[in-house]
Amino acid sequence: MSIRTCAFLTLWVLAAVMTVHSSAARALPEEGTAYRKLEQPQPTASPGTIEVIEFFSYGCPHCSDFHPLLSAWAAKLPKDVVFRRVTVSFNRPAWINLARAYYALQACGDLDKLDGALFHAIHQERRQLFDEQSLADWVGKNGGNAEKFSAAYSAFGVNNQTVQADQTAESYRIEAIPTLAVNGRYIVLGGTFTEILANADKVIALARAEAAAGGTATKHK
To answer: pTM for this structure?
Structure first.
């Protein structure tokens, strides 16, 4: 092999390595643009996995608009990612009641059936579903079990979940919704819903890489 050929191959290898490193750098989400770090990391409910939380309220019109996009995205998450939702009331009485409604629907098994429908009833149909009686009547008229809903709505467990949800939102310093948080460490940023979800994918990848580097990698399927 001639000296010229050897020099050419060396330059080619260096260029390829630089390209790989440049691509990897571009792939990393940018702090301040794609996410911000929580000042105090929070414990997650599912250790050993990557946890994504949506902070939301049925009373929030932006959450209503985000819901179908988020639901489709969440349905495709890999098995090492756990998605959960946490209600936020911002101390508004109507939103506290809607938070109780979320956990009551979850408790009585009607959440999957009525989740999107409740958003639609409040924001498209302009229904005033902000107290127990109107919510129970609506549940019964829309294929749910009104009696089970009312019993769950008033139960200690649902009350406890509602209080804990607001405490979680406060711990995460949630000031606006909808907001996504990843692994108790990152708040996802973005100017549009599509951008938020794209950035969430990047932050999930970042959390997975950090777990692998720390020896706590989760299986990705």
So the answer is: 0.84
